[in-house]
Each structure stands twice: as structure tokens, then as C-alpha cells.
């Protein structure tokens, strides 16, 4: 007989493993679109790219098709860690919010659990995604970092450990939209489940795409702000970072680009959403089936 305590530990480990595999799947399916998104976000409307197609063709022409996978190593490892923490933390938070195992958890409870999980995961996601973003915006002839380890070393040497956490607050607001992510997945699940209560791979993929769409539609301006802060250079005159914080960054984006600036890169983001998040939940559900519940 397995004790209740051992069952709980097994379930937590199961969620963390499922999350790790989902992170790998998410990166493989969505990283090229993410590179285009970050490049468009950081360049703004007055930058070097006229739009998504121009960004794609210019990147491939000047740097080769593998440039679309620049910075893929940090998210390959990082998304495994982030998603592992995300799914594992979500399971813990849901049990705290809804401890009664005899009744199903409600949709509002899942959404609150997602929001809390988002802020918690931000402490893990911020440094990983800072490194990823810095590598993604290395253009031809402007290579500052030879790889993720070199990037981390240089950032810490120049700015201290806080250099990896400058975008923590906007990342927290961005990740807060996990309420829409897990809420959207649960809602889609309820409509897409077959009569016997099971989900096919195709239906899980579709539900994941719905979840991702809800996530990005509710947080994209914060994602633009955090991308700017993560990749910001120092002012050439003062030598200080060009943004003093989230509010200052938002004001400067609006002053130059207006409201359009907060939605720069949204098209490749939406194109990335279905394959990346569909793959995320397919991988997660696959692991859940491969590792039976205690």
C-alpha cells in the first residue's frame, strides 16, 4: 500500500516531469516565431523591419535560416524548467484553493490558481527569458555574446545579478495571464471532450492553441515592455539603462510609436501560439498517460 503522503509526492513529481517535457515541445514548435516576435518588439515601428514578412526574409537572407533558432538553447532548457515549475506549482496551488477531493475544481478556482502560479513562476522565467531575448536580437555583425553562458557572465559582470531580473515586474504582469491560459484550456477541454470523457491528440492540440491565444491576447503589451527592458542598451550619453522601469518604458514606447507600439510582433506571436501551445499540452497529457497516477 502506498501512503497518502507518498501519493502526494508522486503526483507532484508527475506534474513537474510533464511540465519539463512540455517545455521542450513548446520550444521546438514555436521558437522561430518567437524570434520574429522579439525582434519586431524591440525594434518598434521605426526600426529596421517593415513587418513580419520583411523581418523573416531579412533574417534568413542576412543570417541564414538557423538564425530563427538563435537563443534556442536557453528556452530549450529554460522552458523545461519554467513549464516544470508552472505545471507543478499550479497543481500545488489548486490543491490549496480547492482541497476538497470529492468535488471537481471550478473554472474560477482554476483561473485564480493560474494567476497566482504566474507570479510565482516569474522568478524562474525572468532570468531565463532575459538571456533568450538578448541572444535573439543579436543581428549580423553585432554579436555581443558567444552563447547563453557567455551572456549570463557578461550581464552579471556588468550589472550584477539584478541585470537578469530587470524585467521581473512586467514579467509578473505578463505571466499573471496564466489565468486565461489554464482557464482557456479547461474551458476548451469541457467542450472538446468526447462522450467517454477522453481527449484525442488533435483535441488536446486544439485546446492548447485556444489556451495560448487567450494568454497572449490578455498580456501582449506587458510582453512588449518586458522584451524592451530585457534587451535595452545603455544610453550613449549617460551610460545608464535607457529605461528606468516599466512605467518609463511604456511612456517612451507610446511617445514614439503610439498604441501600435504595444502590439508590435503580435502577428508572429499568434502564428506561434497554436503550434507551440498545442504541442505543450499534447506533450504534457502524453506524460500524464505514460506515468500513471498513484
UniProtKB/TrEMBL annotation:
It is a multi-pass membrane protein. It comes from the Eukaryota. Its main location: mitochondrion. It is found in: Mitochondrion membrane. InterPro entries: MCP_dom_sf, MCP_transmembrane, Mitochondrial_Carrier. The keyword Nuclease does not apply. One of its GO terms (molecular function) is L-ornithine transmembrane transporter activity. Solcar repeats lie at residues 10-96, 105-191, 199-290. This is Mitochondrial substrate carrier family protein. One of its GO terms (cellular component) is mitochondrial membrane. Belongs to the mitochondrial carrier (TC 2.A.29) family. GO terms for biological process: mitochondrial L-ornithine transmembrane transport. It holds the Pfam family Mito_carr. Keywords: Membrane, Mitochondrion, Repeat, Transmembrane, Transmembrane helix, Transport. The gene is mcfL. It comes from Heterostelium pallidum (strain ATCC 26659 / Pp 5 / PN500) (Cellular slime mold).
